[in-house]
Amino acid sequence: MKAVAVVGFKEAGKTALATRIVELLSSRGYRVAALKHAHSGLTLGSTDSARLFKAGAVVALAVSSDAVERLERGGLTLPDALSQLRSYDFLVVEGFKESFPGIRVAVARSEEELRHLMHPLTVAAYTPTGGVGSANVPVFKPGEEEGLVDLILERAFEPPAGLD
After folding, report:
1. Which residue in 78, 128, 134, 148 could disulfide with 164, CB within 3.0 to 4.6 Å?
2. Exposed, middle or buried by CB within 10 Å (0-12, 13-18, 19+), for 60?
3. What's the count of helices (H) and strands (E) in the chain, helices before strands?
4. Which domains can be identified in the chain, with CATH numbers?
5. DSSP one-letter code for 157
6. pTM value?
Protein backbone atom coordinates (compact mmCIF):
# COMPACT_ATOMS: atom_id res chain seq x y z
CA MET A 1 0.00 0.00 0.00
CA LYS A 2 1.39 3.36 -1.03
CA ALA A 3 0.22 6.40 0.90
CA VAL A 4 0.05 10.18 0.95
CA ALA A 5 -0.99 12.52 3.75
CA VAL A 6 -2.86 15.76 3.08
CA VAL A 7 -1.77 18.11 5.85
CA GLY A 8 -2.70 21.67 6.75
CA PHE A 9 -4.34 23.89 9.30
CA LYS A 10 -8.03 23.92 10.25
CA GLU A 11 -10.41 24.98 7.47
CA ALA A 12 -7.58 25.10 4.89
CA GLY A 13 -9.28 22.74 2.42
CA LYS A 14 -7.71 19.40 3.41
CA THR A 15 -10.93 17.40 3.16
CA ALA A 16 -11.82 18.81 -0.26
CA LEU A 17 -8.37 17.97 -1.62
CA ALA A 18 -8.24 14.53 0.01
CA THR A 19 -11.67 13.76 -1.47
CA ARG A 20 -10.51 14.80 -4.93
CA ILE A 21 -7.35 12.68 -4.64
CA VAL A 22 -9.49 9.67 -3.63
CA GLU A 23 -11.78 10.29 -6.63
CA LEU A 24 -8.88 10.54 -9.08
CA LEU A 25 -7.01 7.49 -7.75
CA SER A 26 -10.25 5.46 -7.76
CA SER A 27 -10.99 6.53 -11.34
CA ARG A 28 -7.54 5.21 -12.32
CA GLY A 29 -8.42 1.78 -10.95
CA TYR A 30 -6.73 1.88 -7.54
CA ARG A 31 -8.42 0.37 -4.48
CA VAL A 32 -8.23 3.37 -2.17
CA ALA A 33 -8.60 3.56 1.61
CA ALA A 34 -8.96 6.84 3.49
CA LEU A 35 -7.91 7.68 7.04
CA LYS A 36 -8.82 10.89 8.87
CA HIS A 37 -7.16 12.13 12.03
CA ALA A 38 -9.95 13.27 14.36
CA HIS A 39 -7.83 15.02 16.99
CA SER A 40 -10.85 16.50 18.76
CA GLY A 41 -12.74 13.22 18.91
CA LEU A 42 -15.45 11.95 16.62
CA THR A 43 -18.67 13.85 16.10
CA LEU A 44 -21.36 11.22 16.09
CA GLY A 45 -24.47 11.98 14.11
CA SER A 46 -28.02 10.93 14.85
CA THR A 47 -28.01 7.67 12.90
CA ASP A 48 -29.45 4.60 14.59
CA SER A 49 -25.98 3.04 14.88
CA ALA A 50 -24.64 6.22 16.52
CA ARG A 51 -27.55 6.16 18.98
CA LEU A 52 -26.77 2.53 19.86
CA PHE A 53 -23.09 3.40 20.30
CA LYS A 54 -23.88 6.42 22.48
CA ALA A 55 -26.11 4.15 24.59
CA GLY A 56 -23.07 2.07 25.51
CA ALA A 57 -22.57 -0.56 22.81
CA VAL A 58 -18.90 -1.58 22.60
CA VAL A 59 -19.32 -1.95 18.82
CA ALA A 60 -22.18 -0.72 16.64
CA LEU A 61 -22.44 -1.81 13.01
CA ALA A 62 -24.77 -0.52 10.32
CA VAL A 63 -24.81 -2.89 7.36
CA SER A 64 -26.36 -2.50 3.91
CA SER A 65 -25.78 -4.26 0.60
CA ASP A 66 -23.15 -1.70 -0.45
CA ALA A 67 -21.54 -0.27 2.72
CA VAL A 68 -20.68 -0.94 6.36
CA GLU A 69 -20.36 1.66 9.11
CA ARG A 70 -18.47 0.55 12.23
CA LEU A 71 -18.23 2.46 15.49
CA GLU A 72 -15.95 0.87 18.06
CA ARG A 73 -14.79 1.94 21.51
CA GLY A 74 -11.10 2.52 22.11
CA GLY A 75 -8.65 4.34 19.92
CA LEU A 76 -6.03 3.26 17.43
CA THR A 77 -2.47 4.40 17.05
CA LEU A 78 -1.37 5.53 13.61
CA PRO A 79 0.82 2.40 13.14
CA ASP A 80 -2.14 0.17 14.06
CA ALA A 81 -4.42 1.99 11.61
CA LEU A 82 -1.80 1.72 8.84
CA SER A 83 -1.43 -2.00 9.58
CA GLN A 84 -5.18 -2.55 9.21
CA LEU A 85 -5.21 -0.81 5.82
CA ARG A 86 -2.19 -2.47 4.17
CA SER A 87 -4.30 -4.64 1.84
CA TYR A 88 -5.41 -1.61 -0.21
CA ASP A 89 -3.50 -0.23 -3.20
CA PHE A 90 -3.37 3.32 -1.91
CA LEU A 91 -4.11 5.18 1.32
CA VAL A 92 -5.09 8.85 1.44
CA VAL A 93 -4.56 10.24 4.94
CA GLU A 94 -6.02 13.52 6.12
CA GLY A 95 -4.01 14.99 8.96
CA PHE A 96 -1.34 13.41 11.18
CA LYS A 97 0.99 16.26 10.16
CA GLU A 98 3.20 15.62 13.19
CA SER A 99 3.63 11.89 12.77
CA PHE A 100 2.80 10.48 9.33
CA PRO A 101 5.84 8.52 8.03
CA GLY A 102 5.18 9.05 4.31
CA ILE A 103 4.94 11.72 1.65
CA ARG A 104 2.79 14.77 2.31
CA VAL A 105 0.94 17.41 0.36
CA ALA A 106 0.76 20.66 2.34
CA VAL A 107 -2.51 22.57 1.91
CA ALA A 108 -1.67 26.20 2.61
CA ARG A 109 -3.54 29.48 2.24
CA SER A 110 -0.37 31.56 2.57
CA GLU A 111 3.39 31.26 2.29
CA GLU A 112 3.60 31.60 6.08
CA GLU A 113 1.31 28.57 6.55
CA LEU A 114 3.40 26.64 4.05
CA ARG A 115 6.61 27.43 5.97
CA HIS A 116 5.04 25.93 9.11
CA LEU A 117 3.92 22.81 7.22
CA MET A 118 7.14 22.06 5.36
CA HIS A 119 8.75 18.74 6.26
CA PRO A 120 11.46 16.65 4.55
CA LEU A 121 8.70 14.39 3.16
CA THR A 122 6.57 17.24 1.74
CA VAL A 123 6.46 16.67 -2.04
CA ALA A 124 3.98 19.39 -3.06
CA ALA A 125 1.95 22.35 -1.90
CA TYR A 126 -1.70 22.94 -2.77
CA THR A 127 -3.13 26.43 -2.47
CA PRO A 128 -6.93 26.59 -2.77
CA THR A 129 -6.85 30.39 -2.43
CA GLY A 130 -3.82 31.14 -4.60
CA GLY A 131 -1.97 32.50 -1.56
CA VAL A 132 1.26 30.61 -2.26
CA GLY A 133 3.31 31.90 -5.15
CA SER A 134 6.53 29.99 -4.82
CA ALA A 135 7.98 27.23 -2.70
CA ASN A 136 10.76 24.65 -2.63
CA VAL A 137 8.22 22.09 -3.87
CA PRO A 138 5.78 22.17 -6.81
CA VAL A 139 2.70 24.32 -6.09
CA PHE A 140 -0.71 23.19 -7.39
CA LYS A 141 -3.96 25.16 -7.58
CA PRO A 142 -7.61 24.12 -8.05
CA GLY A 143 -8.01 22.52 -11.47
CA GLU A 144 -4.50 21.04 -11.35
CA GLU A 145 -5.31 17.99 -9.22
CA GLU A 146 -4.62 15.49 -12.05
CA GLY A 147 -1.01 16.71 -12.17
CA LEU A 148 -0.79 16.53 -8.40
CA VAL A 149 -1.98 12.91 -8.46
CA ASP A 150 0.62 12.12 -11.14
CA LEU A 151 3.31 13.48 -8.79
CA ILE A 152 1.87 11.56 -5.82
CA LEU A 153 1.93 8.30 -7.80
CA GLU A 154 5.53 8.97 -8.81
CA ARG A 155 6.77 9.76 -5.29
CA ALA A 156 4.59 7.71 -2.91
CA PHE A 157 5.96 4.72 -1.03
CA GLU A 158 4.69 2.24 1.53
CA PRO A 159 4.98 3.74 5.02
CA PRO A 160 7.36 1.70 7.19
CA ALA A 161 5.56 -0.68 9.54
CA GLY A 162 5.52 0.22 13.21
CA LEU A 163 6.68 3.82 12.82
CA ASP A 164 4.82 7.00 13.69
Report:
1. 78
2. buried
3. 5, 8
4. 2-39+75-155 (3.40.50.300)
5. B
6. 0.87
